[in-house]
């Protein structure tokens, strides 16, 4: 029997508000790192930014698996099968922690080769900073995997306040550690990396304690880590395509940034600064993307496709409204924000141009290009989103970046124009898919033997 799933405006505010704050806090960690390390010079900024691109590539694997777990848990909650929802929590943590250990080991042993492979010849001082930062932050991968998994499970329950509060703690530890290591101990890039590691370890420990509370709708059980391959398959069915999509997308970004690296430290540093400001403009859309998983996942689990369509449209409208407001504020205040960075005038001028390209176009394109696909993923339509994202990324971000960046000599500006072309492609394909209704045929319900609905 199909179940009715409804989210009041109050429910959505309770879910979305903390998500926006959490995303802002998460992005601010990277911004604060870049601002503080800028006091060490452009070589340090460049080294940190190059490693952060690799970190994002690898961490996206954990995020994709967490998305898979959140989709599965949300669907089980929507179907009122809380026993399977709880089992999925244990399985998600087991899978993500194991994979994170493997990735950490490989990355740490091959970090110099990865840097040379992806970015080619790098100036010696940039390489030295990158190697140090890579080793320390790489140790944080298992902690990040645990945190992402627990946060995804709380969101699946509709409780985003827990991860928001934990993110606040992580941020405070990171900022205090940065200030102490850089300005009191006078450390180099390790003074930014060590607090990042400590803060991530703190966050994962807090989340593990909270998700172990048996009074929650979903919680982990000490005796529940025996593999359940049916649930693991469901998690990986979402997680693997999403992981491939995100990882190849980030790999494409790395290939594109390798073009920028050829143009020298100024363009690398400008790209790093612009990435930080651009991330602020994406906060509303990213928060709405996470909300999509919870809301649409529960609708799909209840097989209530009318509500799934309704809430998808509603969340997209909210995403557009808040994205427009956020990016307008950034564009207006950009001259003041750029003064924070202790970089050359040439670097800051280029960063300003890149921000104008990104944030101006994001107002019209970003929500449909990146928030809408999560509604499709929540309905198990993961292969379509994967093929569209990978194909669009390679054609526009990679091929056109070489054409515009090197062929026409536009440098970083050509790369960012190519990125907007990728957005336009995604916009067209994902809007068409949603309107076609084919995404509604992908979910296969599990027969439920447990229909309790206690909190």
Number of strands: 0
Main sheet summary: none
| Low confidence ranges | 448-455
End-to-end separation:
21 Å
Strand % is: under 5%
Computed over alpha carbons, the radius of gyration is 21 Å
Mean pLDDT reading? 87
Tally of contiguous helical segments: 15
Transmembrane segments: 20-41, 53-77, 89-110, 130-154, 166-185, 191-212, 254-274, 286-303, 315-338, 350-372, 384-404, 410-432
Protein name: Probable multidrug resistance protein NorM
Keywords: Antiport, Cell membrane, Ion transport, Membrane, Transmembrane, Transmembrane helix, Transport
Subcellular location: Cell membrane
Would you mind describing this structure in some detail?
Residues 448-455 have low confidence and may be disordered. This protein starts with 8 loop residues before the first helix and ends in a 19-residue tail after the last helix. The protein is globular. The protein has one domain. The protein is mainly α. The protein contains 15 helices and no strands. It is a multi-pass membrane protein.
């Amino acid at each position: 029997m199909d179940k009715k799933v409804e989210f009041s405006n109050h429910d959505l505010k309770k879910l979305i508000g903390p998500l926006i704050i959490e995303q802002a806090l998460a992005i601010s960690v990277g911004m604060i790192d870049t601002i503080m390390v800028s006091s060490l010079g452009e070589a340090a900024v460049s080294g940190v930014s190059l490693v952060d691109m690799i970190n994002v590539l690898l961490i996206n694997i954990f995020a994709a698996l967490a998305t898979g777990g959140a989709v599965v848990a949300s669907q089980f909650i929507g179907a009122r099968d809380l026993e399977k929802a709880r089992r999925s929590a244990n399985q998600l943590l087991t899978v993500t922690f194991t994979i994170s250990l493997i990735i950490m080991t490989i990355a740490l042993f091959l970090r110099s080769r990865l840097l040379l492979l992806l970015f080619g010849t790098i100036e010696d001082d940039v390489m030295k900073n990158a190697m140090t930062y890579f080793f320390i932050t790489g140790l944080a991968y298992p902690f990040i995997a645990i945190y992402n998994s627990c946060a995804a499970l709380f969101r699946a329950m509709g409780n985003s306040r827990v991860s928001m509060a934990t993110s606040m703690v992580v941020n405070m530890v990171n900022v205090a550690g940065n200030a102490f290591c850089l300005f009191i101990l006078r450390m180099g890039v390790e003074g930014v990396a060590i607090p990042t590691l400590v803060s991530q370890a703190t966050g994962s420990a807090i989340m593990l304690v909270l998700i172990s509370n048996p009074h929650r709708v979903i919680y982990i059980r000490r005796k529940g880590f025996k593999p359940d391959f049916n649930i693991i398959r469901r998690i990986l069915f979402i997680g693997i395509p999403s992981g491939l999509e995100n990882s190849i997308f980030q790999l494409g970004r790395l290939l594109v940034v390798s073009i920028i690296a050829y143009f020298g430290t100024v363009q690398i540093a400008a790209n790093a600064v612009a990435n930080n400001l651009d991330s602020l403009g994406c906060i509303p859309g990213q928060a709405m993307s996470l909300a999509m998983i919870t809301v649409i996942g529960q609708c799909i689990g209840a097989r209530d496709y009318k509500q799934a369509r309704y809430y998808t449209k509603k969340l997209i409208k909210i995403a557009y409204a808040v994205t427009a407001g956020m990016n307008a504020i950034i564009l207006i205040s950009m001259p003041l924000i750029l003064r924070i960075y202790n970089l050359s005038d040439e670097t800051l001028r280029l960063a300003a141009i890149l921000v104008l390209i990104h944030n101006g176009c994001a107002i019209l394109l970003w929500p449909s290009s990146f928030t809408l696909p999560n509604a499709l993923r929540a309905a198990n339509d993961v292969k379509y989103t994967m093929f569209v994202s990978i194909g669009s990324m390679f054609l526009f971000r990679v091929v056109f970046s070489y054409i515009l960046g090197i062929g026409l000599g536009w440098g970083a500006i050509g790369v960012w124009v190519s990125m907007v072309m990728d957005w336009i492609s995604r916009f067209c394909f994902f809007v068409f898919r949603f309107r076609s209704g084919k995404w509604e045929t992908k979910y296969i319900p599990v027969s439920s033997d447990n229909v309790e609905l206690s909190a």
